[in-house]
Amino acid sequence: MSSEAKALDWQRVASIYDFDDEDVLCVQAGSRRLALYKVNGEFYATDEMCSHGKASLCEGFLEGYRIECPLHQGLFDVRDGSPAGTPVTEGINSYLVQVDGEDILVKV
Ligand code: FES
């Protein structure tokens, strides 16, 4: 398998039991740090870092499908990483997530 194909594999990043009902955690997927969210029983993944500055969204405040950056309170939609509130104007990457038994897998 080429290293490029390998880089697109599904990777186990957490267990469903690591989460409360509405929650965000930092996880490692290969060389990337991601923010992994649980909202309404579904899981979503985005880049960990805010696009506006050096702040970890894992330390942000999750309300519904929006994560609020802890530094300047910018908002992102966790479903697709799109900007959802100022001062954020640039989106972040989002990643496919699937649940296999108790394992949460992310495609990176
Ligand atoms: S660093 Fe996230 S909104 Fe400024």
Spans of at least 5 consecutive residues whose pLDDT stays below 50 are 1-5
Strand count: 10
Structural class: mainly beta
Largest sheet report:
6 strands, antiparallel
Domain count: 1
Total count of helical runs of at least 4 residues: 1
From the alpha carbons, calculate the radius of gyration and give it in angstroms: 13 Å
Query: Helix proportion of residues, in percent?
Result: under 10%
CATH class categorisation: Mainly Beta
Bound molecules: FE2/S2 (inorganic) cluster
What would you say this structure looks like, in words?
With 108 residues, the protein is mainly beta. It has a single domain, classed as Rieske Iron-sulfur Protein, CATH 2.102.10. It is built from 1 helix and 10 strands; from the N terminus they run H-E-E-E-E-E-E-E-E-E-E. The strands form 2 sheets. Strands 1-10-9-4-3-2 form a 6-stranded antiparallel sheet, with no helix packed on it. It has a 4-stranded antiparallel sheet with strand order 5-6-7-8, with no helix packed on it. Strand 2 and strand 3 (32-39) form a beta hairpin. The radius of gyration is 13 Å and the shape is globular. Bound molecules: FE2/S2 (inorganic) cluster.
TL;DR of this structure?
The chain has one domain (3-107): Rieske Iron-sulfur Protein (3-layer Sandwich). The chain is 5% helix and 47% strand. The protein is built from one helix and ten strands.
Question: What's the layout of helices and strands?
Answer:
Elements: H1 3-7, E1 10-15, E2 23-29, E3 32-39, E4 42-47, E5 61-63, E6 66-68, E7 75-77, E8 83-85, E9 94-100, E10 103-107
Antiparallel strand pairs: 1-10, 2-3, 3-4, 4-9, 5-6, 6-7, 7-8, 9-10
Bound molecules: FE2/S2 (inorganic) cluster (FES).
Residues 50, 52-53, 55, 69, 71-72, 74, 87-88 line the site of FE2/S2 (inorganic) cluster.
